[in-house]
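In the lab's daily routine, each protein ends up as an entry in a very long ledger. A line of letters takes care of the sequence, but it says nothing directly about the fold. The three-dimensional part falls to structure tokens, numbers that each stand for a local backbone shape. The outcome of that step, for a single protein, is printed below.
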Amino acid sequence: MKIGVDCVEEINRTFAARIPGYEVESDPSFRLTPDIANAINSLWQDPIIATIMDHSSEFYLMNSANYFFAQVQRVPQRDYIPNESDVLRARVKTTGISETRFNMGQLPIYMFDVGGQPSERKKKWIHCFEALTSIIFCVALSEYDQVLLEEKD
């Protein structure tokens, strides 16, 4: 999405063009390179970011993006280990139906994640509601007015 703004700092215009082409591998041993972390950090510090964030309901931006952008210099370090805050703010796109079972005292709890993407909404997951006594729907209140990730335009 274009909102008709450019970076204030000239170097950040170069970074803004370069960062989208950076490939992040799915290998758990993959490390963000220091030069790309510096580019992200510099771009995040650009004064235009405040203007862009004023339009954040017009495009998808994970609600923990501010946190991770502010922490980007830690990630490429060789001794980087995600801390509790990193883990609590991390998100993974879910697909299909994922079931988690646990007990709360004597009460067995079955928790289902039925995916959130449009293609997942067509799945047949009504069987998850057989023989139940309660339903709790969990949604992110911070994302009620955001554009969906899959909505490119």
Observations:
- The first strand starts at residue 98 and ends at 104.
- The mean pLDDT is 83.
- Helices lie at 10-18, 34-45, 48-53, 65-70, 84-89, 118-121.
- The chain has six helices and two strands.
